[in-house]
């Protein structure tokens, strides 16, 4: 089988990508949506005869939901409603990437369309100005499913030198990380930074701070860009919360604040938030991975910088707690909290929605 990831293939592809359309008004818009798994992404492209400047400029579309786990074969059409627009770092120029919500044949929201209710919740709490920042961890794998760069018949040395490491014996896959970072900046994704993580071949990027539903929009597109970049390098991206037993797992720590928390003496509001989150621990665990907590059971063991899945805890600078209050926040008396429970494969719409419903709306 031909290897389409070799340098010659990429040079050949670049020739075609650089071809200008005969009609210079034509642009390509790639529609992206969450599939029936609640964690996978799908995409397809539409030609448009004008440059879309807003999501509303892109028409609604549809796809075969029976092939994505979102409809039956006898009634397979699922609608795509554009909700967010980004620059396309692969086709470049005036081409766009369009994030979409999914709707059933009767325009009821799709089963994995958590964005709709999330956006409604954010509208209801707009006066509190909820800010979010999400730390997305992930693992790079070879096509055989083994962590990228690991010995084929063994393990790398013990954890310790890999976090924020430098050197070819400490980090694997930096090319993918750097390419993804640039792709996000070009696309207009609000990426805040990146770093190598505790387990070799595991990395993290941060999205935010963003207001309301925007953080989830930007995180989903950042995930899409990461997988698309890794595709070019012939590497697999895994958001599995515990890809290798006995090593650090992968989470999506969610940093959260309200206007009241950011104001002077906001620490009082942060402590109130922790109390409310404590009372809804089980409900949050259920919302923090696509399988109602089953994925997180492998990760939240009380070891490897996690709190046990059955126990709620909070503390200053405690990475073994459910909720960490950063040291500088405690010192300043205001700021934000970090919910360390969400799994790497969580739906950020579900995560941010339940946080505002619990902390702000008191539901």
Tell me what you see in this structure.
This protein is α+β, with helices and mostly antiparallel strands and 363 residues long. Helix content is 28%, strand content 23%. It is built from ten helices and 13 strands. Helix 2 runs parallel beside helix 10 and helix 3 (174-187) packs across helix 4.
Jot down its keywords.
363 residues, alpha+beta, 5-stranded mixed β-sheet, 10 helices, 28% helix
- What portion of the residues fall into strands of 2 or more residues? 15-25%
In helices, the fraction of residues equals: 25-40%
Largest sheet: 8 strands, mixed
Low-confidence stretches: none
What's the number of extended β-strand segments? 13
Number of helices: 10
Choose one word for the global shape: globular
Helix-strand topology string = HEEEEEHEHEEHEEHHHHEEHEH
Separation, N- and C-terminal Cα atoms = 56 Å
Overall pLDDT: 96
Structural class: alpha+beta
Question: Oligomerization state of this entry?
Answer: single chain
C-alpha Rg (nearest Å): 21 Å
Quick overview of this protein structure:
With 363 residues, the protein is α+β, with helices and mostly antiparallel strands. The chain has ten helices and 13 strands.
